[in-house]
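We were asked to recover a plausible sequence for a given structure. The inputs and outputs are reproduced exactly as logged, with field labels preserved.

PROBLEM: sequence recovery
POSITIONS: 70
GIVEN STRUCTURE:
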């Protein structure tokens, strides 16, 4: 569980969702598959396809992925 907490903390610290705080932002979520090496370094991160018609959604996904790599 400590690894999961560390990943969540890293993303929370690096991601600024303020630009997505509009009325529809609560409807946006993204699931990400993250592959790590034995030291915990991110090797790969991919967003799982999800249907979302919000025009800001692609930027939301990219912002989240950038936070994973930070």
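RECOVERED SEQUENCE:
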């Amino acid at each position: 569980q400590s690894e999961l907490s560390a990943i969540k903390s890293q993303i929370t610290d690096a991601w600024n969702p303020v630009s997505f705080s509009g009325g529809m932002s609560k409807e946006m979520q993204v699931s990400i598959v993250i592959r790590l090496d034995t030291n915990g370094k991110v090797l790969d991160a991919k967003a799982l396809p999800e249907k979302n018609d919000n025009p800001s959604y692609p930027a939301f996904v990219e912002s989240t992925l950038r936070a994973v790599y930070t």
